[in-house]
TrEMBL record:
GO terms for molecular function: DNA-binding transcription factor activity; sequence-specific DNA binding. Keywords: DNA-binding, Transcription, Transcription regulation. It comes from Amphritea atlantica. Residues 192-290 form the HTH araC/xylS-type domain. This is Helix-turn-helix domain-containing protein. SMART domains: HTH_ARAC (SM00342). PANTHER family: ARAC-FAMILY TRANSCRIPTIONAL REGULATOR, TRANSCRIPTIONAL REGULATORY PROTEIN. The lineage of its organism: Bacteria, Pseudomonadati, Pseudomonadota, Gammaproteobacteria, Oceanospirillales. The keyword DNA-binding applies.
Amino acid sequence: MAIDSLLTLTQNCIQRQNALGRYLHFDYSKLVIVSFCTPTPIESSVYQPLLCLVLQGEKQVSAGEHQVRCSQARMILVSHHIPVISQITQASDQTPYVAVILPLDREKLLRYFDPTHTTRPVDDSAAIGCHQVPNEVAQALGRLIELANEPTLAPMIAPLIEDEIHARLMHSEIGQRLMRLVWHSDKSAQVAKIIKLINDDLSKNLSIAELAKESGMSRSALHQHFKAITGMSPLAYTKELRLLKAQTLVRESSRPIASIGFDVGYDNHAQFSREYARKFDKSPRQDRATAAGIS
């Protein structure tokens, strides 16, 4: 299936569901169709491993020092759990931004990983990149979308197509990047271990020495490899995650601001409010009021 055909299929699905300008989810798959008619503000969020195939328009994503700009027929590939800043930069009523997103499952990648593979993955390549989409992957994504017309069979067939997508990605040129998620002797796998350790409990103040010990690397090696992959130091990475989690809690709960700061690892309320305002251009209280529609 050519990209133009996949775009037409996706646009028809958006039209049937009256989903232009929002995220379209499916009951039978974690697949998401995204469409917007105007460029979006810059947003901070956390990306899990995923592929994002841009069918129309353009999107820019930054992770620390790493930045990618992805336009039609190109695919954003994320191999690690990372905080990002993103923006849809090209979209209009006549030419909306349209993209298809599919989360990637490490267990499925592992299922199609060949441990006898002679080509080692490249160490320290960035956790986010922009690539040409393999035609077979585009075809499989199209078949996954078409299952919306077969509600009885969709729950049975969708997992098979998702498996196919994972297998085709692992055995394509892009596979070397994804292989880093499952190649246990690779430095990026050690970084992935530290990423998981940080994410498991953001309230813990883990020192570089502790993280280095867990990773089996020296402190300097950990800093070098972590920054090469995520685009930021372990300290900056932890701060980004803490503030993003805090923003979600500030906007979506009524919990005391000081309690939220403490839960994400800030012992000092003034420091929490200061860093929150520096990140989001609003204090936690102002952000909560804005989210609640209070001027």
